[in-house]
Design goal:
It is built from five helices and 30 strands. The protein is mainly beta. It has two domains: 44-199, Jelly Rolls; 224-397, Jelly Rolls (Sandwich). The strands form seven sheets. Strands 2, 3, 5, 6, 7, 10, 12, 13 and 14 form a nine-stranded antiparallel beta sheet that branches. Strands 1, 4, 8, 9 and 16 form a five-stranded antiparallel beta sheet that branches. The longest helix has 8 residues, at 10-17.
Length: 451
């Protein structure tokens, strides 16, 4: 029985967690007891999966592999995560296999964040699962996490896909190790394995588990939306993995957006006043970095333009369904032949700005920070100049700190202090400057005076 409907059975609350079986949120932090025990957020499977159609194995020797097939890496917010298990499909050859997780730091470059125990594969043709109890890793900033493994012998089967593949393996990697070179980068295969992670739980009896001045409920959850305008429409260049493909915008027709992991959201964009069609003239054929996030070539090459593109006309795009929070709204346009592209952005019942407030994002990008209350709509007004358009949007919730770390970014300032003082709790290089003050001494009458 679960009287308070918090996801924990009454006997578990009485005998194990010591939470109140009559109160769904024992510590009053806005999270139910069940949410805190289980961890906030969905489980994530990283890697193409142990059930991947795979029949081949490597030849003898040692190998390192990091799966890079589309959709197999996962974007995770800052936080602490528990690794629940590692599963892989193996052939009939015995050998060692060591799983690890790594954050992408560039093209075919990674930094290791977790290394699991080395497993001895029995040599049976089967799917093998290694379950863990206390394996965790932490991210001080939102990051895209990749799954990899080292193998000694032809242990894990592979099929079609894509992987960064190295010969030999490196069983000596540790968290913090950089992996920057491969004998076969972007190899056309994927190995049948997965590493499953969940957000680590918080204390259901402490509203501020890490003691940083923020309630646990204020630290969890993040929204990241990557929208590629133009995408796979006519005169466009397709969309990269992990991006919403927006081929066009019909006037007054809502277009639903997913998050960066492909999960459904309540967020939608709706063009008012006019529609938008795709084009790719002046394509830069290059990626760019926007608000710390790489915009791949496919997203950067094309854009949407206002259908009635006479200079001096305007059209609004509404962004609805954002959870309450502070966001960076980034606009980009890769087109190299556009000299200027500006817009207006405002929120809810705020007055529309008298003039553009974005600065130009032509052949580049711009980022505007906005605060969104519950139920508020964000407005983007396109100011048509007769050329170019909008290549895409990145909507990134700014703060999602680790409820298990008092100082998420490790800069020695608590998360709550950084937020209250206007500093980024996810940026270790954004913190108050400490000024050394020379001591001063005032004489005290009679002190040290001789006879």
């Amino acid at each position: 029985q679960d009287f308070d409907e918090d996801g924990l059975n009454d006997d578990v609350e009485i005998n194990d967690t010591n939470t109140d079986p009559l109160e769904a949120d024992s510590d009053g932090d806005g999270l139910s007891d069940g949410q805190e025990v289980a961890g906030i957020g969905p489980a994530s499977s990283i890697g193409i999966g142990s059930g991947h159609a795979a029949t081949s194995v490597d030849s003898a020797g040692t190998r390192m592999n990091i799966d890079t097939a589309g959709g197999t890496a996962i974007h995770l917010p800052a936080g602490t995560y528990a690794v629940s298990d590692f599963a892989y499909s193996t052939g009939a050859v015995a050998g060692r296999v060591q799983p690890f997780l790594a954050v992408g730091t560039g093209n075919n470059q990674y930094t290791v964040v977790w290394v699991g125990p080395t497993e001895d594969t029995p040599g049976s043709d089967d799917i093998v699962t290694a379950s863990y109890g206390g394996e965790t890793f932490s991210l001080s900033q939102p990051a895209t996490v990749y799954a990899g493994f080292n193998a000694d012998g032809p242990v894990v089967k592979f099929g079609g896909g894509r992987t960064d593949h190295n010969n030999p393996a490196d069983f000596d990697i540790t968290p913090g190790s950089d992996i920057t070179s491969f004998t076969n980068a972007n190899l056309g295969r994927s190995y049948a394995f997965e590493i499953n992670v969940t957000p680590a739980g918080t204390d259901p009896l402490n509203p501020d588990t890490d003691g940083d001045g923020l309630l646990d409920n204020e630290e969890v959850g993040i929204t990241l939306v990557l929208a590629d305008f133009g995408s796979d429409g006519p005169n466009a260049n397709g969309s990269p993995d992990g991006w919403d493909a927006v081929p066009n915008l019909e006037q007054d027709v809502a277009f639903s957006l997913t998050d960066a992991n492909g999960a459904a959201t309540e967020i939608a964009i709706t063009a008012r006043d006019d529609g938008f069609n795709p084009n790719n003239s002046g394509a830069p054929n290059a990626a760019q970095t926007v608000d710390g996030i790489e915009v791949p070539v496919e997203a950067n090459n094309d854009y949407l333009f206002k259908i009635a593109d006479q200079a001096g006309t305007e059209a609004v795009i509404e962004i609805s369904g954002l959870p309450a929070g502070q966001y960076n709204l980034s606009l980009f346009e890769g087109r190299t032949t556009d000299s200027n592209q500006v817009a207006k952005i405002w929120v809810g019942d705020d007055p529309e700005p008298d003039s553009e407030n974005t600065g130009s994002f032509a052949n580049g990008s711009t980022t505007v920070t906005i605060n969104v209350a519950d139920g508020e709509t964000v407005f983007y007004k396109h100011l048509e100049d007769g050329s170019g358009g909008l290549g895409g949007m990145i909507i990134r919730q700014i703060y999602s700190t680790d409820p298990l770390s008092r100082d998420t970014d490790g800069d020695r300032f608590p998360d709550a202090f950084e937020i209250s003082e206007g500093f980024d709790p996810l940026d270790p290089e954004d913190f108050p400057e400490l000024q050394l003050v020379a001591p001063s001494f005032a004489p005290i009458d009679g002190l040290g005076a001789g006879p």
